[in-house]
Amino acid sequence: MVAVFIGRFQPVHRGHIHTIRQILSEEGELIIAIGSAQYSHTPDNPFSGGERVMFLHHALIEEGIDMSRVYIVPVPDIHIHPLWVAHLKSLTPYFDRAYTHNPLVRRLLEDAGVEVCETKLLERSRFSAEHVRELLRQGGNWEALVPPSVAALIKKHKMDERVRAIGDTRLKR
Amino acid sequence: MVAVFIGRFQPVHRGHIHTIRQILSEEGELIIAIGSAQYSHTPDNPFSGGERVMFLHHALIEEGIDMSRVYIVPVPDIHIHPLWVAHLKSLTPYFDRAYTHNPLVRRLLEDAGVEVCETKLLERSRFSAEHVRELLRQGGNWEALVPPSVAALIKKHKMDERVRAIGDTRLKR
Amino acid sequence: MVAVFIGRFQPVHRGHIHTIRQILSEEGELIIAIGSAQYSHTPDNPFSGGERVMFLHHALIEEGIDMSRVYIVPVPDIHIHPLWVAHLKSLTPYFDRAYTHNPLVRRLLEDAGVEVCETKLLERSRFSAEHVRELLRQGGNWEALVPPSVAALIKKHKMDERVRAIGDTRLKR
Amino acid sequence: MVAVFIGRFQPVHRGHIHTIRQILSEEGELIIAIGSAQYSHTPDNPFSGGERVMFLHHALIEEGIDMSRVYIVPVPDIHIHPLWVAHLKSLTPYFDRAYTHNPLVRRLLEDAGVEVCETKLLERSRFSAEHVRELLRQGGNWEALVPPSVAALIKKHKMDERVRAIGDTRLKR
Amino acid sequence: MVAVFIGRFQPVHRGHIHTIRQILSEEGELIIAIGSAQYSHTPDNPFSGGERVMFLHHALIEEGIDMSRVYIVPVPDIHIHPLWVAHLKSLTPYFDRAYTHNPLVRRLLEDAGVEVCETKLLERSRFSAEHVRELLRQGGNWEALVPPSVAALIKKHKMDERVRAIGDTRLKR
Amino acid sequence: MVAVFIGRFQPVHRGHIHTIRQILSEEGELIIAIGSAQYSHTPDNPFSGGERVMFLHHALIEEGIDMSRVYIVPVPDIHIHPLWVAHLKSLTPYFDRAYTHNPLVRRLLEDAGVEVCETKLLERSRFSAEHVRELLRQGGNWEALVPPSVAALIKKHKMDERVRAIGDTRLKR
Question: Which end of chain B is more exposed for a tag (fewer CB within 10 A), N or C?
Answer without folding.
Answer: N
